[in-house]
Amino acid sequence: MSWMPRMKRKAEPPVNRLADLEFLALVKAGLEELVPGVTEGAQLKGNSMISPQGWAVAVAPPHHGGGHHYDLVALPDVSLQPDVPCFMDCVVSMSADPQDAANTWVQTAGVCLLELLDRRGHFADHAGPEEEHGVPGWHLITSGAVGLGHDVDENRRLQSALLEANVLHRIADSFTADLESPFFNGVKVFYGGTPGAMQAEVRVNGERHEAASAAMTALGLPEPTAFTTVRFYALLLPVPAGEREPSFPTARLDLAPANASGQTDAHSTDCDCACGRHLDPEHPTFALALPHPVAELSEEERRRRVTTNTGPIIVAEGLGNFLKVRLPVRLDDGRTVVHFVWVSLPAAVIEDFVQRVHRDDLAGHRFEGLLYNAVGPWGEDVLHAPVVLGGQRINEDGSVQLSEVLESSDPLLAKIVSETWPTAFVLGDRFPRESSSDVSG
Question: Euclidean distance between the first and final Cα of the chain, in Å?
Answer without folding.
Answer: 50
